Amino acid sequence: MPADSAASADSSISGTFVVIAHHPEDRYPGPCRPHASVHFQDLSRLWEAVAVSNRRGHSVLVVPVPELEPFVRGRWEHYEPGWVARDPSFTHAHVTALAPYLPQPTAADLDRVAAIADATEPFDYVLREVLAFPNGCLHVPPEPAEPFAALTHALWEAFPQCPPYQGEYDVAPHVTLDHSSATVTVATTRALLAGVLPAACRADRLELHWYEEGSCHVLADWKLGRLLR
């Protein structure tokens, strides 16, 4: 299972989304500091800081799934505690919209994401059945999956240099739960989620997450269908 930004920022909202910056001290253990939003013109400083301090990090566009957050976060804490976010807005449980995304998106790049989010109507879905991919990844697919796939294809069309999963896997929307082992199976995972699944959920936002050991956090988020209301 399984990124760090350091930038000075003022307290206003930039465009249709908020880019979240953390102080350098936030890379180290301790209470989370308050988030700060930054203007488009501050993006260059933000990404310069990311480039310097996060060479092993990467960005991902996701739809958060708070209904499964307690379970998924618990799995991260068990396997990879260094990847557990201290950012309280970060949702470990998610459906990937596009990964990997650009390492240093520009304001124009983020405008394109905002336009896609604005044109995507929020939608309801159900998480019902724990399944396993051939590689042992235990997951639960959303029903219906088509709206998630459509979002991925729209983002991919806007960013052809970012094929989903680097072109190694087909687009198959899902929430990752765990990985098969001698003691972790579809059956045991189903049992653990017996009181949670099926879960009625709603996709109403798109988020840009930064993943890096010691500093996973939300960089930006957009409400879906803002211009359709």
From TrEMBL:
Family annotation (SUPFAM superfamilies): LigT-like (SSF55144)
Classification via InterPro entries: Cyclic_Pdiesterase
Molecular function GO labels: ligase activity
Entry keywords, A to Z: Ligase
Protein name according to UniProt: 2'-5' RNA ligase family protein
Species this chain originates from: Nocardioides antri
Lineage of the organism: Bacteria, Bacillati, Actinomycetota, Actinomycetes, Propionibacteriales
